[in-house]
Amino acid sequence: VAPTTPVCEVPSSAMTGTVVQMSCKETEGSPPSEYQWYKNGVALLEKTGTGSARAANLTYTMNKKSGTLLFNTVTKNDTGEYFCEASNGIGLSQKCSVKRMQV
């Protein structure tokens, strides 16, 4: 079953240095969807513990299975427009509407 449009939870504002968790979920897809977060239209890297993601010194952790995007300490650099995409290899992937977070 192809995924439906996911529900994204993105805070509209956050204080610098606080923990922020964004979530993305859809329930119709079978097999279960994987989730990819985007910031300003660019796909965010998944932190795997090695390679380019760590070299980029990421301030967040993205879990493609659960759809969460967790910032341990947000900075002004994290301000931007976020959305996520759900896909499970069946039908078209689905995106939620873009939401802006101001830090």
TrEMBL record:
Source taxon at top rank: Eukaryota
Matching Pfam families: Ig_3 (PF13927)
Chief place where the protein resides: other
Gene3D superfamilies: Immunoglobulins
Signal peptide location: none
Ig-like domain mapped to chain residues: 3-103
GO biological process terms on file: leukocyte cell-cell adhesion
Keyword tags: Cell junction, Cell membrane, Disulfide bond, Immunoglobulin domain, Membrane, Signal, Tight junction, Transmembrane, Transmembrane helix
Topology of this chain in the membrane: Single-pass type I membrane protein
Subcellular location: Cell junction, Tight junction; Cell membrane
Any single Gene Ontology cellular-component annotation: bicellular tight junction
PANTHER family: JUNCTIONAL ADHESION MOLECULE B
Family per record: Belongs to the immunoglobulin superfamily.
UniProt protein name: JAM2 protein
Species for this entry: Catharus fuscescens
